[in-house]
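Internal tracking record. Fields below are filled automatically when a chain is submitted to the structure queue. Please do not edit lines marked as system-generated. If the sequence contains nonstandard residues, flag them in the REMARKS field before resubmitting.
Queue: standard
Priority: normal
Entity type: single polypeptide chain
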Amino acid sequence: MLERLALIAGLAILTLAIDGCAHKNIDPLPTAAQVKSITINFHHRELEEVTFAATANDWKTIRATLLPAKLDQSPSTWESLGTANIVKLDGTPYRVELYNNNKDPGAFAAGKTLQSRVYYRGGKSAVLYKALVAAFDKAPTREVDPARVRGRFRSADTLKIKVAKDAGGFYDEITLVDSKEKDDIEPLIAHLKFIGNAIPREPGSVGTTAAADITAIRKGKALETLQLRGNEIWFGPDHGYKVKLEKGDLYRSLRELAGDPLP
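SYSTEM-GENERATED OUTPUT FOLLOWS
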């Protein structure tokens, strides 16, 4: 009987200890001073999946948006926002999975590996997202996955196209609408194969004269606008990113649509 009572008392103490940890503020994240390098990828609302090299100061700001934190003993299936892959000064890796939660507090998971991660609730998701975008915008090394361009053009029901003449200027706008003209759209999509990731173009750079502007539209809403310049596609906010075309002659196809094929 005494042994049974001792066991019950021990379990009660353990439960209280675990419950106490769950309600106690915890800081599981490395500080900016402990970080050697950080690579962050996240879902940008305008550019989809992006990757950038963050600085220690960036991490200091981003880290603050995740705290104060508490253990999450019953984590939900949160919407993934991104991942911070950290290398500490001693060379050990540390992974922080960032989640988007519509209701505060925010959520994240952290640990040396994916398998050893521990879940936490803390900070504010909206503030975290703003910090990620701010760090991305000023990062010297940024990458954008241009695959979304193909996806958005495939889902379009209308294309509006302006094609440049050899001597400059644009033809009247060509509008391709509805499924009966998908045969015209598919050859254009076939040209949208890229070499590697898109990179930021130099601020203020113009480069080759624009050969065409193409806008993908679905149900009256513009999904994507891209600009053809030489063998590059410029896209994103203010055409701020560029990626090289893998092959094909998109300009020739657009001239054929305009009724003025190249010889």
